[in-house]
Specification:
With 443 residues, the protein is mostly helical. The protein has one domain. 86% of the residues lie in helices and 0% in strands. Helix 11 packs across helix 14. The chain is globular.
Length: 443
């Protein structure tokens, strides 16, 4: 039975509805993980470290599509909730076309300043050459990556989450097969991994475009539109928390890499890369849940169904708590296996990676709540509160922790920093939820 945004969502219906979104986010995260796995084992740790050093830049560029997807998704779902599908489709079309224009412009700028950026990130010598080689190719697929991010949101809003999942799975499988072929079998090295990634991004970004461009049975279809300055501003502001989260995460990753180079050298960057791959996948589950439920929250808020909002928030807290415990347990139990798969060829690097992963695992207990709190306010159309929560968690607290804690505890201080951040961030999120409950009637 097709699940509609207007339905009442009990636990089973929530899980069925958000499952495709969760798997979409996981498969999106797999791109970099698979690249790293093949490059680390078939090309070497210098190229592996180069990917991890450049990844923050690509995340920031692709996050522009994520911003318009999440921010615009709230606007479109509100219009659907108010019973105006024609305007919802005009807004949807405008945001997709705008994403293409922005994607092309950003790609051109990225190509021009790539070498300078790599140097600023700390690359030199052989690592600098690897960064430029990988970056030049990856930037070609940036527009496709942005489109993939925005369509992930709108497949959910269009009540076609399973179809969105299908396209994302196709993209992920494409990446894995081509990595095995280009890097593992044909020996194309770092360039092969990059071409595998942008080919998969083409699958994830362009095929959905053609789906929405023709007649379909979703709630959305690409068509004629017009420039909507207010909608662009509103969507950008509303999605600014998601953009800020990605930018902040990238800045923080850069700081982590700089600190790790200082305290542990190239091995530190490689070890952090492995830990981040685990983080990408597990955090993708929290992001997918928050991302998938956002249209439901936005719809019921637009329809002034306060009882359903209360139910959604209460059930989400319970589900995220269970998921956090499960992920921390899985991370701790699988730390040795994952470390061995990625860097088992180097004993010192393996030991460092395992130690960092064990410490890092405990942050999964809390991060789901903090991610959902920011997304919850985005879905309600309160981009300011969402951005504040995200800004404090993702940038202010992270920067402070990564700069201060290594001074007190050395290399271990770098690994423990994220735990301190999540505890303090939870306090901020709870404060805002209590403060705004009377305005939005979710408690």
């Amino acid at each position: 039975m097709r699940i509609q945004l207007s339905d009442h969502f009990e636990y089973k219906r929530i899980l069925r509805f958000v499952a495709p979104s969760i798997f979409m986010m996981i498969f999106t995260s797999i791109y970099s993980v698979v690249d790293g796995l093949f490059v680390s084992n078939f090309v070497g740790k210098t190229s592996f470290a180069a990917i991890n050093l450049m990844m923050p830049l690509f995340i920031i560029l692709g996050a522009l599509g994520f911003m318009l997807g999440t921010g615009g998704n709230a606007v479109v779902s509100h219009e659907l909730g108010k019973g105006d599908p024609a305007r919802a489709n005009r807004i949807f079309s405008f945001l997709v076309y705008t994403t293409i224009v922005i994607g092309v412009a950003v790609t051109l700028l990225g190509e021009v300043f790539l070498k300078q950026t790599a140097i600023l990130l700390g690359a030199e010598g052989a690592m600098l050459e690897s960064c430029i080689l990988y970056g030049r190719i990856i930037l070609i697929g940036n527009t496709f990556f942005m489109l993939q991010n925005i369509f992930q949101a709108f497949f959910i809003t269009g009540e076609k989450p399973k179809l969105g999942l299908l396209f994302t799975v196709l993209a992920g499988v494409t990446n894995m097969i081509l990595d095995a072929l280009f890097v593992g079998l044909l020996g194309f090295g770092l360039a092969g991994a990059a071409w595998a990634t942008i080919t998969s991004q083409f699958v994830g970004g362009c095929i959905p475009f053609f789906y929405f461009a023709r007649k379909n049975d979703s709630l959305l279809r690409l068509g004629k539109t017009q420039f909507m300055g207010r909608v662009l501003v509103r969507s950008s502001i509303n999605g600014s928390s998601e953009l800020m989260s990605n930018i902040a995460a990238s800045i923080v990753t850069i700081l982590y890499n700089e600190q790790l180079i200082r305290y542990a050298g190239e091995n530190g960057v490689a070890a952090f890369g492995v830990v981040m791959y685990l983080d990408f996948i597990f955090v993708a589950i929290f992001l997918g849940y928050s991302f998938g439920l956002a249209p439901v929250i936005g719809f019921h808020f637009g329809a002034a169904d306060h009882d359903e909002l209360k139910s959604l928030l209460r059930k989400s807290v319970i589900l995220l708590g269970i998921a956090g415990i499960a992920m921390a347990t899985l991370s701790l139990s699988g730390a040795r296996l994952l470390s061995g798969i990625f860097v088992g060829y180097d004993a010192d690097l393996y030991k460092m990676t395992l130690h960092g992963m064990i410490i890092y695992s405990f942050h999964f207990l809390l991060c789901g709540f903090n991610i959902f709190a920011s997304s919850f306010f985005t879905a309600l159309g309160d981009g300011l509160v969402s951005a504040i929560i995200s800004f404090i968690r993702s940038l202010i607290l992270q920067v402070a922790a990564i700069l201060i804690m290594p001074l007190l505890w050395g290399l271990d201080g770098i690994w423990y920093a994220v735990l301190v951040v999540e505890v303090l961030s939870l306090a901020v999120a709870v404060w805002f939820l209590v403060k705004k409950k009377d305005k939005y009637h979710y408690a």
